[in-house]
Specification:
alpha+beta; 5-stranded antiparallel sheet; 8 helices; globular
Amino acid sequence: MAVWQWIHPGKFNLSAHVNVSQLHRVALKSDGSGLSFASDPAGIVNFLDMVGNLQGDSGRGYYIEMSVGTPGQKLNILLDTGSSNFAIAAAPHPDITRYFDTDLSSSFQALDRFVAVRYTQGNWEGELGIDSVSIPKGPNGTITVNIAAILSSNGFFLSGIKWQGILGMAYPALARPDSSVEPFFDSVVKQLGIPDVFSLQMCGAGLSGSSAADPPGGSLIMGGAEPTLYRGSVWYTPIVEEWYYQVEVLKLEVDDQNLNLDCKEYNMDKAIVDSGTTMLRLPAKVFNAVVEAITRSSLIQEFSSGFWEGTKLACWMKGETPWRVFPKLSIYLRATNTSQSFRITILPQLYIQLITDENSALDCFRFGVSSSANGLVIGATVMEGFYVVFDRAHKRLGFALSSCAVSGDVALSEIAGPFSAADVATDCSSGVPKQPLLWLISYALMAVCAVILIVLLLLLLLPCRRRGRLGEITDESSLVRHRIK
């Protein structure tokens, strides 16, 4: 029987063990076609150097150490595949221990351009500049990149975090203030000549252990994929649109039972793969269907609504893990052969997430799935079960079983396929205009509003014996709120 308590700040009980003893030295050089393996140890990319270059931060993302400026100032930078700006703290903040001092870098060049970015939670403002950057556990070489120097923020830096900036790995379409700001990885590919591919292993959620003694970690491999970090084959799904890493979800299953929703419901607004989002986020209708299906298949008849809403934890006596009472969740993605699909599955150890409290006699868990108002987001809850290949060169995303998504002898994720996609529509995209198009529409609407305002002002200046009552004129309805996630 589960007991309940309100969610309170606590430590996530996470750990990861990556066996690097079998890792081999692999170098890549770009041949213009994407992945290009070479045996030359003097190559630009040495995968062995990059294994284990990520650290986790208590369920709040994974960060990599970078050296910024001349001389180099070392900072921890949060990895985010759901945005496109490389932004770092450039002023003191009470929640961070260090920041990038532009005055101490002889290579920093200010561009005199203002930039502001709003995320699902938090926002920041700053100024654009250019400086040199190197990654101690990344590709060899120093690159010159666009940097957003964060001068003020709200809800972005949080108490206790161990990172001082964010590394947006998505496409130029999401860059702010506009797509002329070349994203970090685009600069890496151009200046170092590596293939336009990176891959990501995030180890942590669902694994037991002390987060302090054995913190979660992972690997960001730039230039390709490291075979020893995954098991089995890589299954690929097309990138639908190059802004976010947008994919096409065909259906969801709970305990092998199809939710039987129109596939457009899964892609309402968009469906993306985003390392900067902690949970699996689902459109409201899909989320409610998932909760209902889990409730039906769960061995617990009465479950607090606060658990599903994220306001309460479910607690058991220590050692009484709840894995057996929850079903597995499956997401079907369209394959590169568009008449087929494949299925990625996570066990409850990944979405029923342990929260540690050393002084409690209880083990408490949170629900790693939440409702979303702006699309389906395959976040860390799912990604921690897989090795994800962002093969931008071939406009596809790959999923393979992660070598670290194992607890004891139990694999926490599954992949199966191919399956026929004949039972779903040929196009499950929602048809919602993409953000750049929405901006164009908003500008056009503002221009129309401006013309109307001018006409109204002229009418006000003209003598008129009878004048109808006019309501307030405002352009608020024509503005598209800037929303990265």
